[in-house]
Design brief:
The chain is built from 1 helix and 4 strands; from the N terminus they run ββββα. It has about 70 residues and is mainly β. A hairpin with a 6-residue loop joins strand 3 and strand 4. It is elongated and about 35 Å long. Bound molecules: zinc ion (ZN) (2 copies). The site of one zinc ion has 8 residues, from loops.
Length: about 70
Amino acid sequence: MSDREFHCDTCEGVVLFEAPPCVDGHGADCPELVCTGCGAAVLIATFAFRAPRLDRRRRTTRPPHRQAA
Ligand SMILES: [Zn+2]
Ligand SMILES: [Zn+2]
């Protein structure tokens, strides 16, 4: 699994994020992470541990993930 720590604006600190149960069929590849502190903050893991501006191409083999607003 891919538990990670990130800054949560809601918790105002660094907290552990973990992958929530995925309803989109991504399984272990689900890029979503939810804050374990408040349970409300969700981020897309791909932008958290990859350089987004260098990796904006559509060369991924994975289907595009629904982005949180
Ligand atoms: Zn997912
Ligand atoms: Zn939080």
